[in-house]
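Dear colleague,

Thank you for sharing your sequence with our group. We've completed the structure prediction you requested, and as agreed, I am returning the results in plain text so they can be pasted directly into your records. Please verify that the sequence below matches your submission; if there's any discrepancy, let me know and we will rerun it promptly.
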Amino acid sequence: MPIQVKYNKFVKFTYHEDYSHLIPEDIKARTVFSSIVLDGGNVIKGGQGIVITDKVFKDNSNLSKEELMAELQSFFETQNIYIIPHMPYDEFGHADGMVRGLMKRAVFVNDYSDTKHSPSFINSFDKAMEKHSLIPIKIPYKEIIRKNHENVDVAIGCYLNFLQMENLFIVPTFAELGATNEEVLKIYSQYFQSTPLDCTAIANEGGVLNCISWTIKI
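Please find the predicted structure tokens below.
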């Protein structure tokens, strides 16, 4: 679906699946179309800029990095495009399972210290935060390595994939992670009032709340 840049501007990037037929006509009239391959789940917007993983370079190898960045800056109307490394095993390379809540310079990020991710990945992620002068707020991340019935990685333990609608934050919880659920909600409560929602069934399909939603201002 199109990504909203401002009230009267949406950008429809090229996805692996085309959902153009689902775009309401009044929004389609405010939409510009781009040949850049970029999934909505790989765009984290905030008051200070846009976070995108480096998978965007692989998906648009027909463009140089400089050309691609210039086009993204033009479409999003900001110079602040923050590139971070994607998680090595994530075939989609989305940012919404890695970074959320771009509040001034602070961002919620996964705490990778209790995972099997390589030190090189963690180091490159930390360096990206430092390069962009972003202040990470670490959220517990439980890496549940398990495939579902369609051989897709489940998303159990991905607490960053919450749903935000204005001042309403719906935070995913998971049946098998009771103590961690409470820890995460306690951290989030320092920054916003959250509503927990058991997302075990959704996460077993490979995504959580941000993956299945489209939030816009109308």
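Summary note from our side: The mean pLDDT is 90.

Kind regards,
the structure core
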